[in-house]
Amino acid sequence: MSKNLTKRSEDYSKWYNELVIKADLAENSAVRGCMVIKPYGFSIWEKMQAELDRKFKETGHQNAYFPLMIPKSFFSKEASHVEGFAKECAVVTHYRLKNDEDGKGIVIDPEAKLEEELIIRPTSETIIWDTFRKWIQSYRDLPLLINQWANVVRWEMRTRLFLRTAEFLWQEGHTAHATREEAVEETEKILDIYANFVEHYMAIPVVKGLKTESERFAGALDTYCIEALMQDGKALQAGTSHFLGQNFAKAFDVKFAAKDGKLDYVWATSWGVSTRLMGALIMTHSDDNGLVIPPNLAPDQVVIVPIYRSDEQFNSVSEKANEIMTDLRARGIRVKFDDRDTHKPGWKFNEYELKGVPVRLAIGPRDVENNTIELARRDTLEKEMIPGSEIVEKVVSLMDEIQKNLYKKALDFRTKNTTEVDSYDEFKEVLEDKGGFILAHWDGTVETENRIKNETKATIRCIPLEGEKEEGTCMVTGKPSVRKVLFARAY
Amino acid sequence: MSKNLTKRSEDYSKWYNELVIKADLAENSAVRGCMVIKPYGFSIWEKMQAELDRKFKETGHQNAYFPLMIPKSFFSKEASHVEGFAKECAVVTHYRLKNDEDGKGIVIDPEAKLEEELIIRPTSETIIWDTFRKWIQSYRDLPLLINQWANVVRWEMRTRLFLRTAEFLWQEGHTAHATREEAVEETEKILDIYANFVEHYMAIPVVKGLKTESERFAGALDTYCIEALMQDGKALQAGTSHFLGQNFAKAFDVKFAAKDGKLDYVWATSWGVSTRLMGALIMTHSDDNGLVIPPNLAPDQVVIVPIYRSDEQFNSVSEKANEIMTDLRARGIRVKFDDRDTHKPGWKFNEYELKGVPVRLAIGPRDVENNTIELARRDTLEKEMIPGSEIVEKVVSLMDEIQKNLYKKALDFRTKNTTEVDSYDEFKEVLEDKGGFILAHWDGTVETENRIKNETKATIRCIPLEGEKEEGTCMVTGKPSVRKVLFARAY
Q1: Closest residue to A67, CB basis, from B29, B69, B134
Q2: ipTM of the complex in this document
């Protein structure tokens, strides 16, 4: 298989699009802005799902399922939510088609017009809080910790596979609490779960922070986020966790009786990560040879490619390969033995490089004789001859090593590409020449934030929760600032 | 907790609706015909999903994801498919809302009308075969074995929780093959997977068979099905597997080059089971006390309820309970220790009966003293005192025993309620007085089938694949018949 992949240095965006398609992750469908997630891409998403689902359940959350279609009027109930979400969306207006009287296929039946239009959920706060009203009466019903794995639709004009699609897959958590403190604690706990997952499972370092008011979720009092840095110096928001205060409880009239019998509105959070994480995965680790997948997420962690000319050679090589495969599987490693006779070894090497399989083993007749195996690492592209007696231990320890190496590489990249600046000129210079994360003082006003955005296309990614809190003056207005905030151009 | 459940003998349909809601499985939402699947119900569905997913993957199928919205014109491409599916469906006509100029909330933006309407998938053959065209060129790309877990929408007028809802969750398999034989083999293999799952995992006996022409999936050459018998004597179709021939390949122009280079259309199958299985589960095993769940599907297989008056008693009882819980978990049993002090033991007993937990253990101070535990089986409602030294083994073996007992009970019920008849009068009599499955000779024509349906509301559930093939004459027309077929009134 010839890869013919555009180099990242030539055209990063083209490289990304080609890689997503050539590595069999996803492709565009006949429906504008909607993608098909191909089996290989979906199997990586399934690994993410499984691990996140485990973490949610471990912390007491339960899955449930709410309707895809939401009555239009629900969106108007929470004032700021409607502005943010009920605009670019898919609207269901009819419930029947009929044969065209002129014989031109099928047409809408005008008699089957809905009294009230239904909106395909762009997010489910409204329908879920309409349901929570029935589930919550007393403090005994709280906390209510619900998660939903679902598809959502937001009508995006410019779409890109995984990064921005009209329909995408995600999980959305929705929780209800008796006190403000407990809801804030939940919001932060989820942020930690997300950060932990993205850093340790996906090997992507993130900055945890708070969004500024103008970047907040529509209807939230606070939006926490994790921000990652892509190889082209642009930021990507990898997950958000919202403290919703009592906004949705008030909009949907959800009250609970406290222990002392007093009625009060319930406190809420919501939080989500989506198939966008696939984009983050690709743009953090992959290279000009194709995908690079951390072992934790790799559908196949190891592939064994046999090298042979005759049937006899194939048999002896296969025997050795099966032996190694059995031993590796016993150690919990996901191994594939690619014994297809329809493709040459070189073609297979290219394919598995393109698909990012962490470790490739090649075994030929010589290796059987000498009891050696050729091992190639996808992350470093290094090859090594390993004695047969050591191969299992070597591969097992490599899983951990590659996982850590990918994280370290990404962290080093981010460190090199995070710049502290003190003046607006320096800010613009760094943004143009180097890109990446920029830490700078800001006066805390929407006006200054908007000015910077309009003049440079950089946005405040977050007000970091961690790191130094040195006071200073805003790089644009000179007004006082309590700490530097994180800027970048972003996906 | 007081159950207040209508008795099955009084009003089966009311009993069902009450049970679904009181056992926290699902409820109606604000959206007509769309349900909310509550956490307890969803956790049972997740168990079904996990087991089916494992079986699909074990047999070489891969998951993928295709768009929710399908262009209207796609449905017209396969002639019989459009008749069956493009009628009662949710139609997306616009992609934007705007603020009403009169300040009355939000309204459709007439400028944002789609050129071509999009249909929320009622099933995905069309969009998937449009995609398969790009994935299949040569025999090397076959077989292509794809599955999708998804939500679908069919605009049903009369809906019932789980049994018939406008939106439901399901899996839909779509496969492509080089030969007719291979596609038929796949269709049958999946039917076996379904039957196996429903019988051994859900403890529901099924009859495997072929649908008659008029009951076939729109676009299929053959529809295989599994049919189960509910406690009220009505049948429920629990899963279908369709042999689609080359219909969709022709409609979407999907050809492949065979080894000899010759181009031919691809052969197809599709198959699915849905959240309707939850309805089958409930209506097969449950009783007037509530839900009965087979151990394989029970979110909690065992619940331990402590009985105490003082803190001291609670402590010693808890110690014992935790010990047993640890031992049971080590044996792979899902155990919950309900130590809530907000509810009395009697209330808890009722709750777990209602929710169908297979085994309940109760431990009081006397039991700690005597080293005994009270064990109650949900399936038989029997109680027994078990010595502490035997409790773990007893519970472990009960899991298997209860699973088998539920299957046997359901099978006995079906056997008792399956009647062979030789005349149409007898047929009508049995249908009225006894209900259940009726085996009778039929002449194989649509006319006779329709006449029976119109006159008795009974349909041919299937032409059984197994069982005796005794020739005879049609009970209605007296024309020759090759074997008796299975009739029933159905959900």
Answers
A1: B29
A2: 0.96
